[in-house]
Request: fold
Amino acid sequence: MPIVRGKDIEVLFSASAIARRNLELAKEIAERDYRDLLVISVLKGSFIFAADLIRAMHDVGISPEVEFIMISSYGAGTTSGEIKVLRDIDNDVTGRDILLIDDILESGKTLKFTRDLMLSRGANSVSIAVLLDKHTRRQAELNADFVGFECPDYFVVGYGMDVAHAFRELPFVGIVKGDA
Ligand code: IMP
Ligand code: MG
Reply:
């Protein structure tokens, strides 16, 4: 087991498994006939996945524009949770096909909010790609169009995802098991 910051980390999805899956996802995305595709990476957790997925998309001949949005997930796991845009995109989305890229789909509230926002601004379509789907945790009526892996109901870190701002740099997705 890798030891990082003095903690044992159990590898759940290895760097090589993620790389292979990203290429498969890119091929699935290429099968859709998106025109004028605008990729929006939902920060912060998606930054590594988005960076790898858009390069895999390039490898299969897709040339999207890329944007970033930061959504507050404060209280997103609770029914009273308020969701806000902390940093917005710069582009006009009117008439465009949007692909939202995020790390994990859990309750679905963050991505439902973001999708509805883009539709209200006149996007032609909004699709969703997530690395991980915690299906059992869903509260909002929402599913992803492209899913890297079904994720067991553990808190995971790495490959962009953090616990208290730590572990984003790990090249794999893992579970913090405790002191090494
Ligand atoms: P939801 O789908 O609105 O509940 O929000 C999911 C968001 O919560 C993800 O985009 C992550 O930022 C965060 N999140 C959920 N589960 C985990 C986890 O296991 N590790 C790290 N972040 C998580
Ligand atoms: Mg997130």
